[in-house]
Design brief:
Strand content: 15-25%
Largest sheet: 5 strands, parallel
Radius of gyration: 19 Å
Mean pLDDT: 85
Number of strands: 14
Length: 227
């Protein structure tokens, strides 16, 4: 039997750290915890990790600077920044200075687990820019262009489009979209997904790239499948 992938979780909020640790452990990872950069150094000296989940602002410094210094020294571990900093410039900094992914608080535990799993997969990290047809989604800057034209999307619209683009030509259920793009208080039986998709279709213009999948959800693709 293969050993579980080891993940180093660095978070100074004890309650959040405990919750994330429980979720990642339930997802099949072997989780080691640290509360600051000194603890991170100590754990990295002891062992290698498939992924390091780092809170951005820690009691003894900014994890961004820490990762940048380690990258310059040849460190190649996968890094996911976990942070309340949600400006486009912060995301760009996260990717520019050595991060492989960037999750903003508050977040879906299921999405965090999925992103950690993706990073731990051999060769697995999501590209910073997703492309489909003439659609370009810059995940770091949270900008979307179609045929080179910058679109104005709300945060929720961007999240839904981004998730569909991560699964091109696949049917994505409304429940999956709720789980990954809304917080836990959202009602999966409500029409919130349909309303966001309707606005997205209007902003993306023709030809339509987001198609309804009867009885299931939506699909990012070129044309409706044959009935």
């Amino acid at each position: 039997m293969s050993q579980p992938v080891r993940v180093l979780l660095v978070e100074d909020d004890e309650n959040l750290r405990t919750a994330v640790q429980a979720e990642l452990t339930a997802g099949g990872f072997a989780v080691v915890e640290a509360a600051d950069l000194a603890g991170t150094d100590a754990e990295l000296r002891r062992s290698d990790f498939g992924c390091v989940v780092l809170d951005r602002m820690l009691p003894d410094g900014d994890a961004l600077d820490y990762v940048r210094r380690r990258r310059l020294a040849g460190w190649n571990a996968r890094v996911l920044f976990l942070t309340a900093r949600d400006r486009a410039a912060d995301r760009v900094d996260g990717f520019t200075h050595g991060g492989d992914d960037y999750v903003v608080k508050p977040f879906s535990m299921a999405e965090l687990t999925a992103r950690v799993r993706s990073l731990c997969r051999p060769g697995g990290s999501r590209p910073p820019v997703l492309r489909f047809a003439d659609l370009e989604i810059d995940c770091a800057r949270r900008e979307t262009r179609r045929a080179g034209v910058l679109l104005t999307l709300s945060g929720r619209e961007f999240s839904v489009l981004e998730y569909l683009a991560v699964h091109p030509e696949q049917a994505v259920s409304r429940s999956d979209l709720i789980e990954h793009c809304w917080d836990e208080s959202a009602d999966p039986m409500s029409n919130v997904v349909d309303a966001v998709v309707k606005r997205l279709r209007r902003k993306l213009r023709e030809p339509n790239l987001i198609h309804a999948v009867r009885g299931h959800g939506y699909r990012l693709g070129f044309a409706d499948p044959a009935s």
